[in-house]
Design goal:
heterodimer, A: about 325 residues, about 15% strand, B: about 200 residues, mainly alpha, Rna Polymerase Sigma Factor, Chain: A, Arc Repressor Mutant, subunit A, 2 domains, about 0% strand
Chain lengths: ~325, ~200
């Protein structure tokens, strides 16, 4: 750091640029130069103890580095991050009109329309080739959406590239979280709420979910037992989210079913009142079964193992009808 | 920058981002989850241009700093959203508000008997006991070798706050390593010396 910078930043913020202690630490960290460093060096020629202090700080830093360096990212994580890159690449190649404007930086939490506003106010935006392409693509998608394919009574809903990318991200996240809860230690850490009153309060205050639905969700019966709830994160959701774990009786055994509830980010084209089967094969999570619906305000996602066939009983419990759409 | 190069560059820092995430969450599963969200955000459409604009705008740090900033923000946004974190005692009593680099000098002692090999295991325990804001700053300072200015930009705090947190974290570690006379003897540290420091001050 330059003398000026050191004074301006460290000095003004800390209010003590003249402090020897501060300069000793800055010197140990290689943050001093110029006249401040020269004056300190002059002092150090006379002070064996302060030289020892600096040396200690340097060795402590090296030791902290050694101790904290830890393990590299596991291969499985590396593979998943590569999948995220691939999914995003597809979305990135979609016409710009459909893309959510990326944040200015990660601190920019403004909703997409607000972030887009400065861009869309420019005349050049509306004359961009991508916009014209986007308009054409929109027309094609609108036409395509008219010709929905009905298979076995379930309507497949066409998704654009951005919606597909979001669906993949959502499914991978919830399926992975569901699987992670198989580890009792992870489950006890995350799903720490067991008292119905506590869960109801959490849903009411944090998620703002209707109390009737929450009661039905966590009520333990002979067929379905509530085993815990906790807060969690759902991709693309700004507000808090909840993860509820149930155990559904299937013959002689029980199967875990996760229910995620969060404010609906509106990223998937879901009709209020309709329940959707999510195409987990397309998301690379074919071993999971995922159902989702929106009540217009909250998004509900139900996850179980594909072989467990436990989701329908959760739908019944929540008064939902059978899936009518496929995303 | 084209998409391939951007992704390659971002993936080169995956280990560093993962280590940061582990340091913040102290749970490999949660770290895994955090890292995925960081990269999902980093790879969102349009971010290459934003990343380049940021660099052109003279912001400190490259890809690694940018990814660290996302990690920091995603992690603390989650904590904020969870609204379940109890207020730490010293924060409650206003200790955290004192974000000034304290005037207390680093410890001084006879280093000739210090065995850093033995120090490491004690240091690890001491670091594990630190709060996440201290671990985070130590990680960037000790492992990634970032400058105060870079750390401040990543955490979006004044540089004085970084210096203060670093000082406090180091002090806690030094106290734990050296403050206990038995432990100090076991570590081979002699002549530690709050008493010496006090003498110095009074002199």
């Amino acid at each position: 750091m330059s003398e000026h910078g050191a004074k301006q930043d460290a000095g003004q913020d800390a209010g003590q640029e003249g402090s020897l202690a501060v300069r000793l630490r800055m010197a140990a960290d290689g943050e001093l130069d110029g006249a401040l460093l020269e004056s300190l060096e002059t002092h150090l020629e006379r002070s064996l103890e302060d030289r020892a202090r600096i040396q200690f700080e340097r060795e402590l830093r090296e030791a902290v580095g050694r101790v904290m360096v830890g393990a590299n990212a596991p291969d499985a994580l590396r593979a998943r991050v590569s999948q995220i890159a691939e999914a995003s690449r597809d979305a990135d190649s979609a016409p710009a009109l459909f893309q959510e404007a990326a944040p200015q930086d990660s601190r920019d939490e403004a909703p997409a329309p607000e972030r887009m506003a400065p861009l869309t106010r420019r005349t050049s935006f509306w004359t961009r080739r991508e916009f014209v392409g986007g308009l054409a693509a929109a027309a094609v998608l609108a036409l395509a959406s008219v010709f929905v394919v009905r298979m076995a009574g379930i309507t497949s809903v066409p998704l654009n590239a951005q919606q597909e990318a979001y669906r993949t991200e959502l499914v991978q996240h919830v399926a992975k979280e569901h699987q992670r809860m198989e580890d009792p230690e992870a489950a006890s850490r995350k799903l720490g709420m067991h008292e119905p009153a506590e869960v109801e309060a959490f849903f009411s205050e944090v998620i703002e979910a209707p109390s009737g639905a929450v009661k039905r969700l966590i009520e333990s019966t002979a067929e379905c037992v509530f085993s815990g709830a906790g807060n969690c994160h759902i991709p693309g959701v700004d507000g808090a989210a909840a993860h509820v774990m149930l155990r559904v009786k299937l013959g002689e055994r029980t199967a875990p079913v996760s229910v995620f509830v969060c404010p609906d980010p509106g990223q998937l084209p879901m009709k209020v009142g309709e329940t959707y089967v999510i195409d987990t094969d397309a998301c690379g999570m074919g071993t999971s079964r995922v159902l989702a619906w929106s009540d217009g305000k909250l998004l509900y996602v139900v996850v179980s193992k594909a072989t467990a066939k436990a989701c329908p009983s959760v739908l019944t419990r929540l008064g939902r009808k059978s899936p009518g759409g496929r995303l | 920058m084209d998409r391939d190069r951007f992704e390659k560059l971002a993936l080169e820092h995956l280990d560093a981002v993962y280590r940061m995430a582990v340091s913040l969450t102290r749970d490999p599963g949660e770290a895994d989850d955090l890292v995925q969200e960081v990269y999902a955000r980093a790879f969102r459409p349009g971010t290459i241009e934003r990343f380049e604009d940021r660099a052109d705008g003279g912001e400190v740090g490259g890809m690694r700093s940018w990814l660290f900033a996302i990690t920091h923000n995603v992690f603390y946004t989650r904590i904020k959203k969870a609204k379940r974190r109890p207020t730490p005692v010293d924060e409650f009593f206003g200790e955290e508000g004192r974000e000034r680099a304290p005037d207390e000098p680093p410890p001084v002692f006879d280093r000739s008997g210090l065995d850093w090999e033995q120090v490491d295991s004690r240091l690890k325990d001491a670091i594990d006991d630190l709060r996440e804001e201290y671990r985070e700053v130590l990680m960037m300072w000790g492992v990634d070798g970032l400058k105060y200015r870079e750390i401040a930009a990543i955490m979006d705090v004044p540089i004085g706050t970084v210096m203060s947190r670093l000082h406090r974290a180091r002090k806690i570690l030094a106290d734990k390593l050296l403050g206990d006379p038995d432990a100090a003897g076991e570590l081979g540290v002699t002549g530690i010396t709050r008493r010496m420091e006090e003498k110095e001050r009074t002199a």
